[in-house]
Structures are given as structure tokens and as C-alpha cells.
Amino acid sequence: MKDINSKEDIELLIRNFYNTLLQINEMKPPFEGLDFEKHIPHIVAFWAFVLLDEEGYKTNVFDKHINLPIKPHMFDIWLKTFTDSVNELYIGEKADMAKQRATVLAFTFKSKWEKIKE
Prior knowledge:
globular, mainly alpha
């Protein structure tokens, strides 16, 4: 296995991750009606910014998700699925960073979500 080194590696990860995530019935509702082919470049750009220090991603990720029908425990499912996808495809410093950043992202989203949705 190799490490995450390019946007192509990130796109493979994201496609694998969402293909797996959307097999979980509980995780389908927030993504119903989403045009993934249009959305994937944005997700790839976000992770390229995070992992490869690429310029260009300026959107507030939390604000983009606040109106979705998500329950706090779904962030745990998201994180496990993301981590499993990384482990399935990659090994190395960037792969470890992806899992670490996803952990922080899931924790932050879940914490904010619980406060906002109370």
C-alpha cells in the first residue's frame, strides 16, 4: 500500500468512503437528492487543502452541513467508515493525518451539533 500523495488518491478515497457509507441505511437520509458527481470535487478540494496544503478551499464546512437531517451519533458512524476507508486504501503519514483530521472534524461537528440542536 502507498500513502495519499495526490488529488487522485483523495478522490479514490472519497468515492470509496461514500460508496461504503451509503450502504448503511441510517446514513442515507442526509445525502438523498445530493448530486455526488457535482459534490465530489468540493470534497476532494477540502481534503486536498487539509492533506496536501493546496490552495482554493474557502468554504465553511460546518455551515454547509448545518441544515442536514443529521443526528449526533451519525458522526461516529461517519468517522468509523472514513477511517476504515483510509485503512483499506492507504498507509503512511498523510493517511495517518487524514484519520487524525477526520477525528477532530467529527468531534467538532458532533460537539457543535449537540449544542445547536438542543
